[in-house]
């Protein structure tokens, strides 16, 4: 019965996220359409396991081609678990990462952080806002409220638009009365991002804007379809090399 119960918990979390963020998803899609119109970039960022969401935004079949992923290897647990925790808590790392390339006023920053209190995601958002770029904060208000403050602000406070994942503090969801496993943040992050992408496609079509979307390289015609996107964006997004 445990797998069925967890599946129900996961399904309920996705449905809550859909309902609670309906308006914010529409607004987030509008910001992306604005960015595409300006031939600008969507910067994507996260730390720790939120980097899974960043990977979901970048060079992904069905995903946006104008995405610039912000990354530092110390933030990835695969390069050192404890080091990754320390990195996102270190003030100044955001400025270091942005020194290579930072959002401008026509660009957009999307930051994924469930707790939303560590210096790295908060300082990224603050820097983008100071540069005039809007920020989509994908975070959990409940987790932010419960987490210890490590910055002068929070990601939720810095977001132009907030997509609330609703993830409970600690991320675990199962068993419901005393959760110790079954983390849902990655699942909900990916779901909300896909909702934003589909809303973007709908809004863009209504406005006559073409959305630059990757095709899978493992289907007929995929490589040929992607060639123009590489030519257009690789000079600005070196990670596409």
Automatic annotation (TrEMBL):
Pfam families documented for this protein: SIS_2
PROSITE patterns xrefs: SIS
Source taxon at top rank: Bacteria
Gene3D superfamilies listed in its UniProt record: Glucose-6-phosphate isomerase like protein, domain 1
InterPro entries according to UniProt: SIS_dom, SIS_dom_sf, SIS_GmhA/DiaA_subfam
Residue ranges of every copy of the SIS domain listed in the record: 32-209
Official protein name in the record: Phosphosugar-binding protein
Species annotation: Amycolatopsis magusensis
Taxonomy of the source species: Bacteria, Bacillati, Actinomycetota, Actinomycetes, Pseudonocardiales
């Amino acid at each position: 019965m445990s797998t069925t119960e967890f599946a129900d918990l996961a399904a309920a979390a996705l449905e809550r996220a859909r309902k609670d963020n309906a308006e914010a998803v529409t607004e987030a899609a509008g910001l992306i359409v604005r960015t595409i119109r300006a031939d600008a970039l969507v910067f994507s960022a996260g730390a720790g396991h939120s980097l899974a969401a960043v990977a979901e935004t970048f060079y992904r079949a069905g995903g946006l081609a104008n995405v610039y992923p912000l990354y530092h290897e110390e933030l990835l647990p695969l390069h050192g678990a404890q080091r990754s925790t320390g990195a996102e808590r270190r003030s100044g790392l955001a400025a270091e990462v942005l020194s290579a390339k930072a959002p401008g006023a026509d660009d957009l920053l999307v930051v994924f952080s469930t707790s939303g209190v560590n210096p790295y995601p908060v300082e990224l958002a603050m820097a983008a806002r100071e540069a005039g770029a809007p920020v989509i904060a994908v975070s959990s208000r409940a987790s932010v409220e419960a987490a210890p403050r490590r910055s002068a602000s929070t990601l939720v406070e810095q977001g132009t638009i907030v997509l609330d994942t609703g993830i409970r503090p600690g991320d675990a969801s199962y068993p419901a009365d005393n959760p110790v496993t079954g983390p849902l943040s990655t699942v909900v992050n990916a779901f909300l991002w896909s909702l934003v992408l589909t809303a973007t496609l709908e809004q863009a079509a209504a406005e006559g804007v073409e959305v630059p979307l990757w095709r899978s390289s493992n289907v007929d015609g995929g490589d040929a379809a992607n060639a123009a996107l590489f030519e257009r964006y690789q000079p600005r997004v070196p990670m596409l090399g």
